[in-house]
UniProtKB/TrEMBL annotation:
InterPro entries registered for this protein in UniProt: FlhC (IPR007944)
Signal peptide, first to last residue: none
Organismal lineage: Bacteria, Pseudomonadati, Pseudomonadota, Betaproteobacteria, Burkholderiales
Taxonomic source organism: Roseateles asaccharophilus
Gene Ontology BP annotations: bacterial-type flagellum organization; positive regulation of DNA-templated transcription; regulation of bacterial-type flagellum assembly
This protein's name: Transcriptional activator FlhC
TM helices/strands, residue ranges: none
């Protein structure tokens, strides 16, 4: 059960990183 929360957190972080990368690409 603990693993599931870690997986969800990792997925959220991945999504945040993707959004940051997209934002940086748009700025450039």
């Amino acid at each position: 059960m603990r693993q599931k929360s870690i997986l969800t957190e990792a997925r959220q972080i991945e999504r945040a990183v993707t959004l940051i990368n997209l934002g940086a690409r748009l700025q450039v």
